[in-house]
Amino acid sequence: MPRRGLVAGPDLEHFQRRYFTPAEVGVLESIWEILHRYLPYNAHAASYTWKYEGKNLNMDFTLEENGIRDEEEEFDYLSMDSTLHIPAILLYFNDDLTEL
Q1: What are the residue ranges spanned by the domains of the chain?
Q2: How far is it, in rounded angstroms, from Cα 48 to Cα 94?
Q3: Which residues on neighbouring strands pair with residue 5, listed in sequence order?
Q4: How much is the pTM?
């Protein structure tokens, strides 16, 4: 089942149009697989440290294994629009230009 999420840069409004890339990801996809699908948007995606809530993500783990829960069912149970909260994975540049 696909999950909505963001692979994102800075959390500033004028950056949002340029740097935020919404992505649907499968619950069984590892962060490494998500990175490979993100490459058309940023060929240097492997040059970044991928973080969620300030913690480095294990690239071999899925979102769930990295502590990023799918809360869509909870939103549905509460009759809330699940698009109100979309988890954001932040990318921090590592000062190299790795290309895959």
Answers
A1: 26-93
A2: 5
A3: 23
A4: 0.69
